[in-house]
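During the reporting period, our protein records have gained a structure token line. One record among many is quoted in full directly below:
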Amino acid sequence: MRKIFFFLLPVILFMSCRTSKELTSPQPMDKNAKDIPYTILKGYFLRNTHIHKAGDDAELLLVDNKAAMDDLLGVAKTMSNTIDTPDFSKNTVGIVICRPTNMKTKIELNYVKSSEKNLYISADVSRYEEQSFLAAPILVFQFPRQEGRTLNATVITNTIGENK
């Protein structure tokens, strides 16, 4: 019993210390919502510590500090050794996370919009070709902080088809 307790204690502490925000159920977009500029961040992978929510094919997390981002994402070595680094003093980081799959997956961000009270984010997920391994596809992006707004996001999963 003690072994189980000591195993579960760090897991519980880790989950309680995370400061990322999860999306609420999508609401109709306010017609006065304005586009917010965003930047795609490259050079990251999802750590194995992330537990995907049951039933969701894709999920969106918002992260507002480096510690929370480091808990979710690892830095991938690239050919140029350049990693896009977010500026948390001015920006929020969004991460679209797909369930692990053996299909090649393309995630496209449609828009990031803001109205007086709400923040709207939409992305498409397309799967199009089988591969020989499992991967958890992600898309990482940053946008200027939108304090005091409720997140209304949709992640649309397309059926298996051609690569767009």
Observations:
- The first strand starts at residue 21 and ends at 22.
- The first helix runs from residue 2 to 17.
- Confidence is low (pLDDT under 50) at residues 2-25.
